[in-house]
Design brief:
Family: Belongs to the CREG family.
Pfam families: CREG_beta-barrel
Subcellular location: Secreted
Number of strands: 7
Shape: globular
Helix content: 25-40%
Distance between the termini: 28 Å
Structural class: alpha+beta
Order of helices and strands: HHEEEHEHEHEEH
Keywords: Glycoprotein, Secreted, Signal
Number of helices: 6
Largest sheet: 7 strands, antiparallel
Strand content: 25-35%
Radius of gyration: 17 Å
Protein name: Protein CREG1
Length: about 200
């Protein structure tokens, strides 16, 4: 019997890792867990910077970036949004002037919302807004960032070496959760990091 349970659990892990399903989200009263859950189940997000580009200087500028808080196994992840960046990218040029940014991730990019008939703007199709700054990871954290990102985005390993890619993370200072009717919920970074997704 234990062998059958192990095989079933292994099959679920493989199915989830392959993007075949998303486990059910936490209940709305657990906003910190919801924030962790949404980030862990998303492979990309919209990063908004303050533009340093001529003609757009000081205006908000949103761009899509691949991200990961850890390998795709369910109910895991560090909660830290890691990114793989190059100084050649337009948003990174903005961050060199002002490292403050916001990052939005949404369950709309998973099968969950379509399966339940939720429009991406429907609060039940949960999305999270993180505010903070982008920082390069320290040498001691490069291994974690690399494993997190390359496990979900394997093509990154083959991106052009002459682009001088580096690992970065989103240093979270504020978190807003919209996962139910009645408005945004505020989650502190301490609450966020103290729970599992």
């Amino acid at each position: 019997m234990a062998g059958v349970l192990f095989l079933c659990a292994a099959a679920v892990v493989l199915l989830l890792a392959a993007g075949g399903a998303v486990p059910p989200p936490p209940p709305p009263e657990e906003a910190a867990r919801m924030a962790r859950f949404v980030l862990h189940n998303c492979d990309w997000g919209a990063l908004a910077t303050l533009s340093a580009q001529e003609g757009l200087r000081g205006h908000p500028f949103a761009n899509i970036f691949s991200l990961s808080d850890g390998p795709p196994e369910p109910f895991s992840g560090s909660g830290v949004p890691y990114l793989y960046l190059t100084d050649m990218e337009i948003s990174v040029k903005d961050l060199e002037i002002n490292s403050n940014a916001s990052l939005t991730v949404s369950l709309a990019q998973t099968p969950y919302c379509k399966k339940h008939g939720y429009d991406p703007q429907n609060p039940l199709c949960a999305h999270i807004i993180f505010c903070g700054s982008i920082v390069k990871v320290k040498d001691s954290e490069v291994g974690l960032a690399k494993k997190a990102l390359f496990s979900r985005h394997p093509e990154m390993e083959n991106w052009p070496k002459d682009h001088n890619w580096f690992f970065a993370k989103f240093n979270i200072t504020n978190i807003w959760v919209l996962d139910y009717f009645g408005g945004l919920k505020i989650v502190t970074p301490e609450e966020y990091y103290s729970v599992k997704p």
